[in-house]
Design brief:
Elements: E1 8-12, H1 25-39, E2 44-54, E3 58-60, H2 76-79, H3 89-101, E4 107-109, H4 116-125, E5 133-139, H5 144-153, E6 162-168, H6 186-201, H7 204-208, H8 210-213, H9 217-220, H10 229-236, E7 243-247, E8 250-251, E9 255-256, E10 259-262
Helix pairs in contact: 5-10
Length: 266
């Protein structure tokens, strides 16, 4: 990993229980985070999660975000977890300024807490909660190209010690969730490997049109929200970046935990 330009990162955050049941993906994130911090001085993280969807672009600007347990019906120990990372108001203003430079007006949100799409994967990636974090909202009704452009507008932050993360899910059809260990559904594997092939080839046009081209796209994602953070990570990456997979795990048979870094172009 270069000490000059950080990668961008796509994380599949799965279900909230990922916080307590890390599988293979959680330890892989921890190892990768350790390698990253050993090789680089991190100024902060900017992360997009589908669990903050807003009518217009918005940026977390509080210095001390709360941990929001934005889910119900899970075991009590999950609600006792806290992720006490600091916010970064100055970095939030940088984000707002970079978006303004490309014509995107974003509002600062001083009351926004960490939703589980942010704090659950971050507790594996940086378990000491010692890297400041800024969340950006996923604007309602934005599609892949618009989210990609938002990531691209922030790409330069990678040159100053900021890790840009899209946190979503490679597959996310919760109507098929039955819990427990199950063999991966064939459509989950087919969709995930189609995406891997397209990202590896750098075929953005295919990815922008994934709903028409990818196998079982509407079954893998009945709605787009959990897939769109992928485009934030892709936009933040260099054009020639290719994926370095941390995980291809499938949880509960239907949740592909595909997670990969997009390293700086050589």
């Amino acid at each position: 990993m270069t000490a000059k330009r950080l990668p961008s990162l796509f994380i599949s955050h799965g279900a909230p229980l990922f916080a307590l049941e890390p599988g293979d993906t959680g330890p892989a994130l921890t190892r990768w985070g350790q390698q990253l911090t050993q090789a680089n001085t991190l100024r902060g993280v900017v992360i997009m999660s589908p669990h903050w969807m807003a009518r217009a672009p918005a940026v977390m600007s509080t210095a001390a975000p709360q941990t929001w347990h934005d889910f119900g019906g899970f075991p009590q120990p999950l609600y006792e977890l806290q992720y006490p990372a600091a916010g970064h108001p100055a970095l939030a203003q940088e984000v707002i300024g970079l978006l303004a430079s490309v014509g995107v007006e974003a509002q600062a949100d001083a009351g926004r807490p960490f939703d589980h799409g942010a704090w659950v994967p971050l507790m594996h990636l940086f378990p000491q909660a010692d890297v400041p974090v800024v969340q950006v909202a996923l604007p309602l009704r934005w599609g892949p190209a618009e989210v990609f452009a938002l990531g691209r507008a922030l790409r330069s932050l990678r040159d100053s010690g900021v890790l840009l993360i899209g946190s979503g899910s490679m597959t996310h059809n919760l109507s098929e969730f039955f819990g427990g260990a199950r063999e991966p559904a064939p459509y989950v594997l087919a969709f995930s490997r189609w995406v891997e092939d397209a990202v590896t080839r750098g075929d953005m046009q295919a990815l922008f049109n994934y709903r028409a081209l990818a196998p079982s796209a509407s079954r893998a994602h009945p709605s787009e929200d959990h897939f769109l953070p992928l485009f934030f990570a892709l936009g933040a990456a260099d054009e020639q970046a290719r994926p370095d997979y941390l995980s291809r795990e499938v949880m509960y048979g239907i949740l592909s935990m595909d997670t990969f870094a997009l390293s700086a172009a050589a």
